[in-house]
């Protein structure tokens, strides 16, 4: 991070930030009064309404990576970044709500790995639970590091002070209130983020002369390519337009995004906290509506920065490859927001980073307590015992996250590559899930064999590419940039499917009676549908809302092509 | 699934309104507070029009936040969440009572 980047925060701005965190802690204390058993702590007692979990669903993802990373992509690649939302996230969220949620919610599992265990037994379960738990702790550490480094850069606080302070706040509201507190804070944070990013975008557009002015200036600066979203060859790094479109649709859209949104327990956990099957299915579907408009306040400010912020303009004009576009959003905040709104934006950004970390940790403690401790270490203890284990897991995870953050501060690139690596767990996981849900012949051995071989295939592609693992990559394949990740994910998906099918054909399948609730053909209709579904008004019917959302996202794709 | 009976429900034993715990009221309170502060800054603070391009950003953002906060407070007033400690698993407490 550029050490000269400082925001001139005034007393008013600090008051706004302080009040935000006072409210966050208050929510933790209020939620504590209601936490009475372990289901309450881990899954909010399955009692939250769908609009709350829907907002929490996208808010858990609207953290450091989204705001900083997507505005950076907006500055670097322009409108092509929209694909992450309109080709990637939204269709995947609709698929989760319409097709996969009935299995997750209907089988009454408490976590995504638990579904793996019931469908495929301990082999696939251990692979999934362990890789997920390790990934979450490390990602929590990365979130924490990003948070602390921004506080250091903007406000001038030493790194270790903001590390410990941020970790203490996250720890206190999760241990006090569990998932309820985390979800309530995510909803609150969503509104604070919107309240700061909407004025930021409007003011930015006003400064460059509206949408027409923005287009003219971007064109004048030679960035005409950033104004159209297809074929996105600058984003994928592919020479051919045709393969670029294939890479976006299949690699980013189908494999990477479906893998992330449908099997990532951080997200799915929010839908499991609802009160009915319809509400669980509605969670990602309701979330898809705000999600499709998020890029307007995240990607567009990045694009505006290329014609408004001197530092970004200079880097663009000189074609400076070393420029850190991750600062684009911060430059915009510095240049556009007056004191007052600056405080709202600071509160929103700090909240987003903390919510990201809180989401990682609350998903970690569920998987640790139920999937690892209760399944393999201490079985059959009273419910209260696992509640206590969950609280201690939270404390332990936070301490490890601080350690990870300190390591990350020394090896920034290493952390980037780790995140790339974790991305590779999702693609084969999605392949295994989708095959396991619809093909009853798929066996337990195929479950773990497919996962392991798919992940290894992705890692192999990343090593053979030009730069997916930085200098460790060999450059045998002519793939670089985001395109390498898309190809790695696609290969992982394909290898997982092939290995799973081949292994299934030579091993013995599970008895059919054990597959009820887990496989489509063996699940009675009433178990995967909501008995009250037909009596719900249209705005609470998951499939109708999903159709409306799909129509809207197709329209957005057509308008901004 | 081991879903233990609630041993300690604190003060909440019978169905009651969520009140201050309703997240809509928390959102309305926080955003409303931000709105008031921004309007005050707009009236008493300096206008920094070099950043905003001549728009009084704090004033307009503050007013918008106040309108938003009022509508959320109104929503939770008109359709309160009813918390029923005994029916946390199957109850759909999103809608108004008797819906």
Q: Please, could you describe this protein's structure?
A:
- The complex is a heterodimer of chains A (561) and B (99).
- Helices cover 75% and strands 0% of the residues of chain A.
- Chain A is mostly helical and 561 residues long.
- Chain A is globular and about 65 Å long.
- Chain B has 99 residues and is mostly helical.
- Chain B has a domain at 21-80.
- Chain B has 3 helices and 2 strands; from the N terminus they run βαααβ.
- In chain B, helix 1 (23-44) packs antiparallel against helix 3.
- The two termini of chain B are 30 Å apart.
- Chains A and B meet through helix 1, helix 2, helix 3, helix 8 and helix 16 of A and helix 1 and helix 3 of B.
Keywords:
heterodimer; A: 561 residues; mainly alpha; Sodium/glucose cotransporter; 21 helices; B: mainly alpha; two-stranded antiparallel sheet; 48% helix; disordered N terminus; disordered C terminus
Strand content of chain B: under 5%
- Helix-residue proportion of chain A: over 70%
Radius of gyration of chain B: 20 Å
Helix/strand order of chain B, N-terminal first: EHHHE
The most extensive contact between chains is: A-B, 50 and 48 residues
- CATH class categorisation of the largest domain in chain A: Mainly Alpha
H-E string of chain A: HHHHHHHHHHHHHHHHHHHHH
Instruction: Please give the share of residues in helix of chain B.
Output: 40-55%
Shape of chain A: globular
Strand order of the largest sheet of chain B: 1-2
The average pLDDT of chain A is 80
- Helices of chain B, by number, come to 3
Describe the main β-sheet of chain A briefly: none
How many separate structural domains of chain A? 2
Q: What is the number of helices of chain A?
A: 21
Strand content of chain A: under 5%
Q: Give the number of DSSP strands of chain A.
A: 0
Q: If you average the pLDDT of chain B, what whole number results?
A: 69
CATH topology of the largest domain in chain A: Sodium/glucose cotransporter
Task: Please render the helix and strand layout as text.
The complex is a heterodimer of chains A (561) and B (99).
Chain A: H1 11-32, H2 38-43, H3 50-59, H4 64-77, H5 83-106, H6 112-120, H7 122-155, H8 159-208, H9 210-220, H10 233-236, H11 241-263, H12 265-272, H13 277-308, H14 310-318, H15 328-336, H16 341-377, H17 383-410, H18 412-438, H19 444-464, H20 481-506, H21 542-559
Chain B: E1 16-17, H1 23-44, H2 49-52, H3 57-78, E2 82-83
Antiparallel strand pairs in B: 1-2
Helix pairs in contact in B: 1-3
């Amino acid at each position: 991070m550029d050490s000269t980047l400082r925001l001139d925060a005034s007393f008013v701005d600090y008051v706004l930030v302080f009040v935000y965190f006072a409210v966050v802690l208050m929510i933790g204390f209020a939620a504590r009064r209601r936490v009475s058993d372990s289901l309450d702590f881990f899954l909010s007692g399955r009692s939250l309404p769908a609009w709350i979990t829907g907002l929490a669903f996208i808010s858990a993802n609207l953290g450091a990576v989204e705001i900083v990373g997507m505005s950076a992509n907006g500055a670097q690649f322009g409108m092509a970044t929209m694909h992450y939302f309109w080709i990637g996230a939204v269709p995947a969220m609709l698929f989760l709500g319409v097709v996969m949620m009935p299995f997750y919610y209907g089988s009454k599992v408490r976590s995504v790995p638990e579904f793996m265990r019931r469908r495929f037994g301990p082999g696939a379960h251990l692979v999934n639970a362990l890789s997920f738990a390790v990934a979450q702790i490390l990602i929590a550490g990365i979130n924490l590091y990003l948070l602390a480094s921004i506080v250091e850069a903007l406000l001038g606080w030493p790194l270790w002070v903001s590390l410990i302070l941020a970790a203490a706040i996250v720890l206190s509201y999760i241990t006090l209130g569990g998932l309820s507190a985390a979800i309530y804070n995510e909803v609150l944070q969503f509104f604070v983020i919107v309240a700061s990013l909407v004025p930021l975008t409007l003011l930015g557009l006003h400064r460059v002369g509206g949408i027409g002015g923005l287009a003219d200036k971007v064109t004048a600066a030679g960035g005409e390519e950033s104004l159209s979203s297809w074929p996105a060859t600058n984003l994928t790094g592919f020479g051919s337009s045709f393969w670029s479109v294939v890479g976006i649709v299949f690699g980013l859209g189908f494999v990477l995004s479906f893998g992330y949104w449908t099997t990532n327990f951080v997200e799915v956990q929010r839908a499991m906290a609802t009160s009915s099957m319809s509400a669980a299915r509605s969670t990602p579907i309701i979330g898809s509506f705000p999600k499709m408009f998020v890029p307007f306040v995240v990607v567009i400010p990045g694009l505006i920065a290329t014609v408004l912020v001197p530092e970004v303009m200079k880097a663009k004009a000189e074609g400076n490859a070393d420029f850190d576009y991750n600062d684009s959003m911060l430059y915009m905040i510095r240049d556009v927001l007056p004191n007052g709104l600056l405080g709202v934006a600071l509160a929103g950004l700090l909240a987003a980073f903390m919510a990201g970390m809180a989401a990682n940790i609350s998903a970690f403690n569920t998987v640790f307590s139920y999937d690892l401790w209760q399944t393999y270490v201490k079985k059959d203890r009273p419910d209260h015992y696992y509640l206590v284990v969950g609280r201690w897991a939270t404390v332990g995870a936070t301490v490890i996250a601080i350690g990870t953050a300190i390591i990350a501060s020394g090896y920034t690139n290493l952390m980037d590559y780790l995140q790339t690596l974790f991305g590779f767990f999702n693609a084969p996981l999605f392949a295994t899930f989708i095959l396991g849900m619809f093909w009853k012949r798929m066996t337990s051995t195929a479950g773990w064999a497919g996962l392991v071989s798919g992940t290894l295939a992705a890692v192999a592609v990343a090593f053979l590419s030009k730069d997916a693992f930085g200098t460790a990559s060999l450059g045998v394949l002519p793939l670089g940039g985001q395109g390498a990740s898309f190809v790695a994910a696609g290969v992982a998906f394909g290898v997982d499917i092939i290995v799973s099918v081949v292994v299934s054909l030579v091993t013995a399948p599970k008895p059919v009676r054990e597959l009820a609730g887990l496989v489509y053909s063996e699940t009675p209709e009433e178990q995967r549908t909501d008995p009250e579904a037909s009596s719900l008004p249209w705005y609470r019917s998951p499939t109708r809302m999903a159709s409306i959302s799909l129509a809207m996202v197709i329209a957005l794709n057509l308008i901004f092509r | 699934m081991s879903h233990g009976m609630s041993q300690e429900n604190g003060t909440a034993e019978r169905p009651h309104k969520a009140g201050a715990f309703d997240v809509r009221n928390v959102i309305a309170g926080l955003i409303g507070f931000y709105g008031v502060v921004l309007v005050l800054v707009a009236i008493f603070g300096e206008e920094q029009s070099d950043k905003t391009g001549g728009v009084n950003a704090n004033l307009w953002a503050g007013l918008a936040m106040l309108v938003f906060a009022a509508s959320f407070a109104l929503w939770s007033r008109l359709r309160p969440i009813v918390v029923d400690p005994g029916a946390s698993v199957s109850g759909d407490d999103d809608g108004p009572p008797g819906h």
